[in-house]
Specification:
Elements lengths: L15 H7 L6 E7 L2 E7 L4 H19 L4 H30 L1
Antiparallel strand pairs: 1-2
């Protein structure tokens, strides 16, 4: 457990080992939530809308090219596997972040 001091304007310093493990850098945003008497901080990343739309279109075009010869059942299988993998990664990251805060 680390101890931090609240200074002027309610500022606190997040210990370096926490910042390193969560890859938090100066200028990053944190979501703040109050849960009873517990303050929860979650790193948040914001993306420029135009960049995100462009990247999405590029990915969709690539997926279309790679899957245009597949039948629907094969495509459904690939999509479901990809969704499952993403959910597993997100669950693992959430678990790690929750354990870091405790």
């Amino acid at each position: 457990m680390s101890l931090v001091k609240v200074i002027k304007h309610g500022q606190v310093a997040i210990p370096a080992n926490f910042r390193e493990k969560l890859n938090i850098k100066e200028g990053d945003y944190l979501e703040v939530e109050l849960d009873g008497k517990t303050i929860i901080l979650r790193p948040k990343v914001f993306v420029d809308r135009e960049d995100a739309v462009k990247a999405l279109h590029e990915m969709m075009n690539e997926v279309h090219e790679r899957t245009k010869n597949l039948d629907h059942d094969e495509l459904d299988k690939i999509i479901n596997e990809a969704i499952s993998e993403v959910r597993q990664v997100r669950a693992k990251k959430a678990h790690i972040a929750d354990n870091m805060v405790k």
